[in-house]
Amino acid sequence: MRILLVEDDAALAEATAKALRAEHFAVDVAANGEDGAHLGDTESYDAAVLDLGLPRKSGITVLEEWRAAGRALPVLILTARDGWSEKVAGFRAGADDYLTKPFRIEELVMRLRALVRRSAGHAAARIVCGPITFDAQTGQVERDGLPLRLTALEWRVLSTLMLRKGVVVERLDLMEHIYEGDADPDSNSLEVIVGRLRKKIGADLIETVRGRGYRIIAA
User: Fold this and answer.
1) 47, 116 in Cβ contact below 8 A?
2) Is the peptide bond before 102 cis (omega within 30 degrees of 0)?
3) Mean pLDDT across the chain, nearest whole number?
C-alpha cells in the first residue's frame, strides 16, 4: 500500500512517515499544497493524508481540484483545526475521513487501512484466498491460521493482490503501489519478490499472466 502524506510540519511529517513505514506502508511526502496536488495527479496511491493549512495551496483547494478532476483517491484530512465548520468544509470538498491533531499513530493506521479496504470494495476485513487470510484492518497475514512473516515489500505485493483477488494486477500498476517515488528498482525486482512470496504462501496461489501481470487465485 502506498500513501501520499501532505504535511508542512517537517518534524511531524518525518515522524508520521517513519511510523507508517514501520507498518509496511510505502510513503511519499509533500511539504506544500502545490507539490501534494501534483503528486496526487501524477502518481498512484492507495490513500492520501492531507493537512489543511498548507503553504502555496490549501488542503481544501487541493482536495477540491482532485475531486473536480475525477480523482477517486481516498483522502483523510489530518489537521489541528477541530471546529465543526472546518470538518464540514473538508467533507464537502470530498474528504473520506477526518482526524485532528494531536493524534495516535495507531488510529491513523487503522483509519487508513479501513479507507483502502473500503475503496477496494471489501465490506469485511478478512480476505481469504485458499490457506491465506489477510486481515485488511490489522494488516495481519496468516497461512493455515498461523502468522506469516513477510518483508515490507512482500507484504505490499501480497496485500495489493489480496485486495484485488481474482483480478489481474498489471505489472506497472503493482510496482507503483509498492515502491516509493524516489525508489529505483531494477527490472527483475518484482519477479524476485513474487518468487519469495510463492515459497512462503504456495507456488500455485499467485498466477503469472504473461504480458500483463499477476493474479492471486480467488479460492
Assistant:
1) yes
2) yes
3) 93
The model's pTM is 0.91
pLDDT in tens, 46-99: 999 999 989 999 999 999 999 999 999 999 998 887 778 888 888 999 999 999
144 and 188 inside one domain: yes
| Radius of gyration from C-alpha coordinates of the chain | 18
Q: Residue 140: what pLDDT?
A: 95
- Summarize pLDDT for 182-198 with one digit per residue, the tens: 777 776 799 999 999 99
Tell me the three-class secondary structure of the chain, residue by residue.
Answer: CEEEEECCCHHHHHHHHHHHHHCCCEEEEECCHHHHHHHHHHCCCCEEEECCCCCCCCHHHHHHHHHHCCCCCCEEEEECCCCHHHHHHHHHHCCCEEEECCCCHHHHHHHHHHHHHHHCCCCCCEEEECCEEEECCCCCEEECCEECCCCHHHHHHHHHHHHCCCCCEEHHHHHHHHCCCCCCCCCCHHHHHHHHHHHHHCCCCEEEECCCEEEECCC
Q: By residue range, what is the domain housing residue 171?
A: 126-216
For residue 83, what pLDDT is reported?
74
- Our count of domains for the chain comes to 2
